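Milestone M4 deliverable, item 7.
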Amino acid sequence: MQKSLFYVITFFVLISCSSNKSKFTEGDGLAAFNADSLKKYIAVLASDDFMGRMPFTEGETKTVAYLQEQFKQMGLEPGNGDSYIQEVPMANILATAAPSMQVKSAKGTFNLKAFDDYIIWTDKI
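Output delivered:
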């Protein structure tokens, strides 16, 4: 009895899988992406309006807003609840150094400007 029930269920599963017609058209999915559309998006994101897209800047805020709007226009559903973005904690490491450093040697003395001429690195936190 169990063996025949298994065959009946398997038969119906196979029939249901094979009878589904694809609801996607040629214009959906990967076919919607091409070199011209990719160039358009890259040109927009690389423009001066996005100020380099650096984290913690207005450029990042503009970039995220632009991408969310593009996702909505494409008809994509949010992938994180009702949001297109996922919060990712970022670390901002700021090195501190004296504004200048005076170097003395047998040949003389010279001054170095912090961050232009030198930076001090430590692996101790």
